[in-house]
Amino acid sequence: MRVLIAEDDELMLRTVEFRLKKDGHEVILARDGRDALQKIEEYQPDLIISDVMMPYLSGLEIVAAVKENSQTPIIILSGMGQEDIVLEAFRLGADDYLTKPFSPNELSVRIKRFAVVNQR
Amino acid sequence: MIFFEVLLSFFFALAICLITFLSFYLFVRKIWRREYVKWDMMIDLLLRKAIFFHENNTTQLALIPVTRRLKANLKNKRFCKQFVKKIIAAKRNMSGRYGENLRHLYIQLGLDKKALRLLESRKWHVRAYAIQQIGTMGLKEHLTRIYRYTNNKNDLVRIEAQIAVLNLFGFEGLRFLDIISYQITEWQQIRLLKELSTVPQAELTGIDKWLNSGNPSVVIFALKLVRNYHRYELYEHIVSCLDHDDASVRRQAISTLTEIYTENTSEKLLSRFEAETYKNQIAIMNAIAVIGDVQNVSILLGYLEAEQHEMKFAVARALVNGSATGLECLINDPRSKTYPLSDMIPQLKSEIKW
């Protein structure tokens, strides 16, 4: 599966990339919201994992832009205590969310769920 | 003439010195920046290895392999600071075994001992940073070292210590409320409540004790806990706070009662209206507008005589929302034909509609 990760924290980005590559996915990295939107258009990923707080464009804006003209599933990474943001993300069309701190294993399991749906 | 020449030479020399200094400064900055980029890569690589360490090593006690170069670099203050900053940020993002691995690395590199040494620093910001590290890395064994700082005279050290204790022990960590003598500012209360929202909910005991604290800010914080966690069993304690000496405590109690109330709460609040401060009177009206259940509408109609528009509006809103016949009584009142009530009523009607 082709997965795009949008995250401005380099370590987090690389950690998630490491885990997803180990799981056999093709990974595209984006370090800010603007970069993410460009790469989504260019690479047409099967799944998007996006942080909420990012430079130029937030994760919520990415959800809104992507869901306007596609059904690509999106997993939002939010901070603890940001329930309002998560609700807003779901309202905009996000498919799942993970709260930081999170376990890369949990993310892996959730991606597998989308991979199964994608194969169907 | 000579004077001007000397003055010119002086400024010229000064300009040369300034340019030399700035060039040197920018040069050093450039070298540092390059160093930081290199360090970042080195640190990220190690942290990544550490995060996934348990997936490749089944032995619990195995040490995370660290290069000699990195160990040597840790003696450099700037590198060490950068490393600690990164490992703390990573720990905040990772949970379970992955987070534990980072904690393991932190201890393995002796950074916990460094943090404990920093606790003894005279500089408050260094101490606050050390406390933050201990809290984030979950070093429960050092609770006694940071617990005393929860009542430190420096408010930034104090809040970091309080948050660290909550990080380590969740709701149980709130025990520091038993002993603190300093005020918990509004901002600190927001930070504590936010921190509590991230810890798993457990049995929250001791609120009744804090509601009787001699420190008004502790009572206010306890009232906020009651409100946020809907502790209905403490209703009578909240009502008794309506008689507290401190007006801000009474105001907080009024606001808490809008979340946990009974059928006669509105009456209890109304009976205290006359004796309250202006701000608290407004709070009472706002509370009644939420709670409702007003038996005696005529009392509220009497308060419409207030001169301030803010109060008039609060009373009118309490009337409309607090009683089934409130709006009708308000419209039938002769004062409703004149300004400002004539302008307020359409807004209140629209509020009901929505």
UniProtKB/TrEMBL annotation, chain A:
One of its GO terms (cellular component) is cytosol. GO terms for biological process: regulation of DNA-templated transcription. Residues 2-115 form the Response regulatory domain. One of its GO terms (molecular function) is phosphorelay response regulator activity. CDD domains: REC_OmpR. Keywords: DNA-binding, Phosphoprotein, Transcription, Transcription regulation, Two-component regulatory system. This is Transcriptional regulator. The keyword Cell membrane does not apply. InterPro entries: CheY-like_superfamily, Sig_transdc_resp-reg_receiver, WalR-like. The modification 4-aspartylphosphate is found at residue 51. Gene3D superfamilies: 3.40.50.2300. SMART domains: REC.
TrEMBL record, chain B:
The chain crosses the membrane at residues 6-28. This is HEAT repeat domain-containing protein. Keywords: Membrane, Transmembrane, Transmembrane helix. InterPro entries: ARM-like (IPR011989), ARM-type_fold (IPR016024). SUPFAM superfamilies: ARM repeat.
